[in-house]
Amino acid sequence: MSTKRTAHIISHTHWDREWYLPYEKHHVRLVKLVDTLLDKMDQDANYRSFFLDGQTIILEDYLQVRPEQKDRLSKFIRDGRILIGPWYILQDAFLTSGEANVRNMQIGHQDAKAYGDVSKIGYFPDTFGLVGQTPQLMQQSGITNALFGRGVKPTGFNNTVSDGDFESSFSELIWEGPDGSQVLGILFANWYSNGNEIPVDKEEAQAYWERKLADAEKYASTGELLFMNGCDHQPVQLDLPEAIQAASELFPDTTFVHSNFNDYLAAVQRSGKQELSTVKGELRSQRTDGWSTLVNTASARVYLKQMNQLGQAMLEKVAEPLAAFAHVLKVGEKYPHHLFTYAWKTLMQNHPHDSICGCSVDEVHREMVTRFDKSRHVAEAIVDDSKQAIADMIDTSDFTLAGEGALPVVVFNTSGWERSGVVSIEIDALRLYFRDGYTLEEASAFVKAADITGRVLVDATSQPLPCTVEDLGLQFGYDLPDDKFRQPYMCRKVRLTFEAGNVPALGLKTYAWVKREAEWADSSLFAGERAMENAAIKIEITDNGSFTLTDKKSGRTYRDLGVYENTGDIGNEYMFRQPDGEKPLTTSGLQAQIRVLQDTAYQASVEIVHDWEIPASGDDMLEIEQRDLVYYPHRQAQRSTRMIPMRIRTVVSLSRAGQGVEIESSFNNQAKDHRLRMLFPTDLTAQTHHVDSMFEVVQRDNTPAAEWENPSNTQHQQAFVDVSEAGAGLVVANLGLNEYEVLRDGRNTIAVTLLRAVGELGDWGLFPTPEAQCLGEHTVRLAIFPHTGDGAQYEAYTAAYQFQIPWTLAQTGIHYGRIAATYAPFQWQGEGLAFSSMKMNEASGDLLLRWYNLRSQHAEVKVRTQLPQRNFYKSTILETQGERLAVEADDGLTLPVGPCEIVTIGIQR
């Protein structure tokens, strides 16, 4: 190391909006901090720079209370002294969707540009591990770096030096994504507070800098040393200029600079003398002892993850494509950019790691539930407007030929692939408005007396379909017209449930309930009292409530699926810790109550009930160890000997066209300090497995690295996990169940966490969180899709992605229209590609479509459209216009897609 070195001191504060204090208490402290910062910058030109934690929401939070300070704040941003962006919030990486991360970058850039320059800094100071596609996402955002604190050795928990088996030789490294994209990685090897509270006193400064310079030089590849002057909620160090002056006098061989990330990164790149290590893919602290990875935040407060999954799906997979569909088809149907921005911001306020990870105090997570509801309600309002606008454009006139009194129903498939499945809709068989002179008594009597018998559901070719009809009786309703006062009415509600078949991707299919006799023969999917079977699979329920699945394509049978496992948890919101020596409880030895729940031509369901007893809580030692701040791996607590009942109701369903089986599990949790999982033994021979992550399906080892000491090897997932061997595989999909483990039990069992109940936050003190025990009613949903490998796994992955997306249905009337009863504005093909989003760009008015390549080999996407727009171009996640794409003779295009590439196509209007 050269004796001449530069100490780059970067002032910042890492601002968790909510964590060990509720949001508003942190908010008050933020206002004080920014007030102090502005005063300091006004008074002292030597206080050169401050990095505002990479998230523009800090500006919103501050100006919400101090709107009169906007001009003053804006001036320092324009002058380059306060650096902002590129994100809206600092989000968790593994618990938020790919599209949520894209919107985060888009909105962060949008908001930062309103003030001045956007900091092109890939900033992840405390993110709990990083996904493999981060380098590509950074490059597509014009960012060539990533600065992070977790995921790669050479540092362990609390910044202790590890054993020397480094993944990277230095704190500087090259990070490469699965597509080959590379960024300069900077690991905060001594944490993002290694330059905190620098002394002015000469004697203190001497000792401080001798230690700090040596610590930085342990890891740095150059003489450009990074010192982060700040920490979590850290106030501004007002005497920093004086502290820098003192350091300069004490260490003349070192240049001390009040720096910023742009200058520091440029200096590192200029002075690079050492060959840097290349680290590839995910950064999950794989080469550590496994005790402090914070991975079990994936199962803390599962209810939050479930709400988040639904909220993301409603925005990115339902509302955005429907609103874009309506906008490009109907003149005057505006795409509600303002509502989407508001809904996304509200949802993303729940995405910081201490929020979505469920590792904060109870008050924080109560407020999150309200935000989830608010965002979803906006999405639902957009969906209601969009689906009705599209339904009004469908030509339903031919349904008059299928029978009298036709009531058309539209099924929308907003996934990126053709889809079949069981759907349900409540329609008005008869509606009487009070405006037409009916009294309440008259309307109610007339509606109650209406005859709704003798009807059948038909498709656009007048073919009848099996359909279950439930008369919901007399109900009150109302319209809210755009040009009139609210319009109340009484109606006769009917619920129709049926299997919609082959609904086109990003399209619709129309049916109608008409007066006509049913013309289909009843059939059943039951092949015995406890067996269900369709063309693809067979399910057999055993006495203990587990089931056997036979994949007819591969001939492979999977046994003992759906067993429940329960263990104690003496850990905290961050990490699971099973009591020493405890043997897990399972339902494999229980006698279950089993009955047929549904037997129709399109679906069969079986109800399974387990009456179980589990320990009521941890024992008395747990509370003592929590109070004494005993580090959770060292705890000796066990489970209580007192047992309490736990009834679990499981519904296993198979549809006629289904390629897999769906599972719904409901229970009332009254136990504390425990974990509940569902087990799916695969009995497949495999050393690795595949799991859905952000914009990729990543391969992970079943057995952790040699350094891993934690008996548990739980990991993050998004939509699914897949264990496969040649010719066979099993995909287990989920809705908001983000934690799984492939057990080292000789059967390669996939274990999915349904609930984890703990009573403390953990980390740096004692913060009781009784609501993290998750007492009360819970319902979880999973699905299993077998496959034969050799490319067939992508069909199973498609089914797993579609399982994440709610169906959308609408009732409409008989009318002429410009689109057919079965219609889709786009058709696309691309082997191994996953469709990700369809939305409009606010600045250009262009339509944007995005895919990502699930394979590490070249592919191509073919796109055809019936819309008049014909100018195609390749874009990025920031939706900037790139190279023009050639249109082919059939008014479509074919675009090469690189291995694991995220590709966005723009269509000019």
UniProtKB/TrEMBL annotation:
Keyword Metal-binding: yes
Gene3D superfamilies: 2.60.40.2210, 2.60.40.2220, Glycoside hydrolase 38, N terminal domain, Glycoside hydrolase family 38, central domain, Golgi alpha-mannosidase II, domain 4
Keyword Hydrolase recorded: yes
Keywords, alphabetical: Glycosidase, Hydrolase, Metal-binding
Superkingdom: Bacteria
GO molecular function, one term: hydrolase activity
SMART domains per UniProt: Alpha-mann_mid
Span of domain Glycoside hydrolase family 38 central: 297-372
InterPro entries noted in UniProt: Gal_mutarotase_sf_dom, GH38_beta-1, GH38_C, Glyco_hydro/deAcase_b/a-brl, Glyco_hydro_38_C, Glyco_hydro_38_cen, Glyco_hydro_38_cen_sf, Glyco_hydro_38_N
PANTHER family: ALPHA-MANNOSIDASE 2C1 (PTHR46017), MANNOSYLGLYCERATE HYDROLASE (PTHR46017:SF2)
Family label: Belongs to the glycosyl hydrolase 38 family.
Name the UniProt record assigns to this protein: Glycosyl hydrolase
Protein species of origin: Paenibacillus marchantiophytorum
